[in-house]
Each structure stands twice: as C-alpha cells, then as structure tokens.
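User: quick one, sequence for these tokens?
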C-alpha cells in the first residue's frame, strides 16, 4: 500500500502496514516504516446501516394532539 498518510500531532506520517491480529482481538493496527504504530478498535471503522424505512416513517409521523377546553 502506498500513498497513505496519517496526521499525528503536527506531523504527517506515511503508513506501510494496516492489519488485524490473528486470532481476532477486535483491533486494527496501523504501522509506519519508522516502527511507530497505533491500534484502534474495529468498531470505530464499522459502518452503521440505515434503519428500515417502516421504522423511520412511523417515528417521523406526528402524534395526535388532544385539545382540552376549560369549562
């Protein structure tokens, strides 16, 4: 992989390896050619799928309003 960089403090650092451990530990590790590395939880990189349309429209529908008049 070439051309991938990350900003660490005020420096741009080139990355040479991006890997996960075997057996899975739930972390992704990014390593630079200088030996620096940093690990993050895989949950940070998961994409959330949008909620089902039926749930969205039901939640977006306004509730009925009840008007009470004082006698």
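Assistant:
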């Amino acid at each position: 992989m070439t051309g991938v960089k990350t900003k660490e403090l005020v420096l741009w650092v080139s990355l040479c390896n991006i890997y996960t451990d075997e057996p899975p530990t739930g972390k992704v590790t990014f390593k630079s050619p200088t030996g620096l590395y940093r690990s993050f939880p895989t949950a940070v990189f998961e994409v959330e799928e949008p909620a089902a349309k039926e749930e969205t429209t039901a939640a977006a529908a306004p509730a009925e309003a009840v008007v009470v008049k004082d006698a």
